Here is the input.
Amino acid sequence: MLASIKKAKDLYKAHSKKEDVRRIIKDGVIEMALKENFSDRVRLANAYMDEVVTAVKRLNIHGVDVRAVVSTKLLVGTASGFLKVITEVGMHWDPVLDLPYVPGSSIKGILRSNALELCKEKKSEECVKYVLKLFGSGEIFAEAEEVFGFKGFTTEAHVGKVVVTNAYPTELSEGKLFAGDIVNPHYYKENKVVENEYEVEPVPVKSLAIRKGVKFRFVIGVKELEDAKKLSKLLFNYDLKKPSELVFLLLTYSFSKGIGAKSSRGYGYMDVEVVNLW
Here is the structure.
């Protein structure tokens, strides 16, 4: 991260035509990132996740140690993350490990959202309440009446009983972490919205994405068995023995639908490759 900032600073100082400097900085940083060797950093991330697993087990919390492989390009944190100023497409970035990551809060939100979607299909108020107990809820569950049709539905604010760590890349794809990517701003001409699409002159925006084949690792802890058992029965008609089994089922289902930005366009699909449950 610091290297890319230094690269941008040096290019800005060296270039005389300031009107072209942004493009040159962007191309320079993207080229550097595509060539960068992240091997030591992903090994460090893997060692860190080993420590996380040990800590969760010592707390006597049931958990899942997940390794998932990116089956398409992956974008996370595009709206505001690191690189947004340089490439116009941001990315969540850990300044300590010096790696991109998928926030644990995002993974937890995806699990919660998909669990609620499954509850919606079953039209079960009991199902929704167990999802909120496990994954957390605000003082008011706004979708209760409008989306689910439940009148007089009440909840209490709480953080839930599922804890999800950030997901870090722990194995590269053919020695690489990033792939080049572009975004086409189709309906702009000279940075202005056009009224007639025949006037469009698309200028591709170059950026970076996580490369297909990169493996991520993260841990999910589940503090409650009984609630997980009941929700598993309601959602999947499955009698689980460990609460972490429920998370595995939801995780597999959720990752098949994509995570992160542009999942509707084929980005962000991941396959759960290795899961250790305890």
Q: What stands out?
A: The two ends are 36 Å apart (CA to CA). The first strand starts at residue 62 and ends at 70. Residues 161 and 223 are 5 Å apart (CA to CA).
